[in-house]
Amino acid sequence: MSYVFSPSLPIAIGSDHAGFAYKAELMQWLSAEGYCLQDLGTFSEASVDYPDFAHPVCNLVENGTAAFGILICGSANGVAMTANKHSGIRAGLCWVNEVASLVRLHNNANVICIPARFVSLEAAKEMIHTFMTTAFEGGRHENRVNKIACII
C-alpha cells in the first residue's frame, strides 16, 4: 500500500457491539499487512454505548498519537456524529469505495466510519485501503476544509 498517513504512528480503531466482529477481522487483516494498531474497544459483542469507543479513537487522532482512526458500528451514523463533535476530526461515513476516496480527496478526512450492517467485510477492506492510500487534493478544497471546525 502507498500509505499517505504517517506510517510511524498506529491506526486507532474502535467499535461498538455491532461492529465488533468486523473490527476483529479488519485488525487481523491490517496487522498481516504490517500496520500497528491501537484497539480502543469494545472487546466483545455485549451491548455497549458507541461514544465510549468513538471518543478515545478521536482523542488519539486529534492529539497526533494515531495516524488516523477507524470506527465501526451498525449504521456508522452514531460513531460519525460522535467523532465530528471533536474540532480536529473530520470523520467520513463510507458505504462505497468512491465515498472513501472523496472523503480523503475533498474533505481531508482523518477518521473513516464503516457501517457493519450495510457493507460486506470485503467492501470495508477496500474502503479502508482507499482511505489509507488517497491523498488530500488541497487546492480549492483546502479553504472549505479550513472552514469546517466551529470556532466561537
How would you characterize this protein structure?
- The chain has a five-stranded parallel sheet, sandwiched between helices.
- Helix 2 crosses helix 3.
- Helix 4 links the parallel strand 4 and strand 5.
- It has a single domain, classed as Ribose 5-phosphate Isomerase B, Chain: A, CATH 3.40.1400.10.
- The protein is built from six helices and five strands.
- With 152 residues, the protein is an alpha/beta fold.
- Overall pLDDT score: 96
**Which architecture per CATH?**
3-Layer(aba) Sandwich
Task: Bin the helical content.
Answer: 40-55%
Percent in strands: 5-15%
Report a brief summary of the structure.
The chain has about 150 residues and is of the alpha/beta class.
